[in-house]
Amino acid sequence: MYLPILQIHSEDMPPYAIVCGDPRRAKAIADKLQNAKELAFAREYRTLVGEYNGVRLAVVSHGVGSPGAAVCFEELIRAGVKTLIRVGTCGSYHADIPAGSLVISFAAAREEGLTKQLVPSGFPAVADPGIIAALEAAAAEVPGSGVVRTGITVCYDAFFTGVEELPHRKYKQAGILAVEMEIAALYVVSSLRGARAGAILAVDGFADEDLSEVYDPHTDAVAQAVEREIGIALEAIARLARSE
Ligand SMILES: O=P(O)(O)O[C@H]1O[C@H](CO)[C@@H](O)[C@H]1O
Ligand SMILES: O=c1cc[nH]c(=O)[nH]1
Fold this sequence. Notes:
Blueprint: E1 2-3, E2 8-9, E3 16-20, H1 23-30, E4 34-42, E5 45-52, E6 55-61, H2 66-78, E7 83-92, E8 102-110, E9 125-126, H3 129-141, E10 148-155, H4 168-173, E11 178-180, H5 183-193, E12 196-206, H6 220-242
Parallel strand pairs: 3-6, 3-7, 7-12, 8-10, 10-11
Antiparallel strand pairs: 1-2, 4-5, 5-6, 7-11, 8-9, 8-12
Helix pairs in contact: 2-5, 3-6
The structure holds 1-O-phosphono-alpha-D-ribofuranose (R1P) and uracil.
Uracil binds next to β7, β11 and β12.
């Protein structure tokens, strides 16, 4: 089967995939694989395949924001991908989860618009527990400094605030760890289409006004956290593959 938006053939796709927003991050992840090959680079969707410790996997960029990312997730699942791990960045709500920390998201509050067009408001955006366990186990093994926390994240469409206030204060008070823009789509689409998903995020700053300073996602601390989460996601996939 030919997937017209990603511009890939399902026959070329393995059952495991790492997904991320940035096409350059996708290439950086694929550079850690053996026999890596780029299959397509269409719009924001860069698809590469390779092997990690004998496990074939794809690495695919989905761009910024849920509608475009959902197109990517839908086509990957149609192509036969069964396990998707998002390796992203996020803004933290808490002073003790500063830039350079990692957040494993086991569920997402659905503050974006895309999933409202797919499922009723009561439908949860949840990760696969096996993937979360594999990410946590891999995080305990992959070296690196900095906080690693597992919890709930919130998914927005807006990155910059307009004249309406984003509900940061309420979600922070409710114990949400961090904000990003695609996990709700990933978890809902995966649930609907019979795939399993999880996500790990590198904190690149603070998301709300109480804590925010100058936003700079290009620091050494963030780069090191991204490097570490890539290692954790690859190890998690190796663990999942070994257990199957
Ligand atoms: O680093 P990525 O994977 O792109 O994730 C986060 O970064 C982007 C915003 O800068 C959004 O896509 C958000 O979800
Ligand atoms: O969506 C995002 C991603 C990274 N950092 C943020 O503050 N927000």
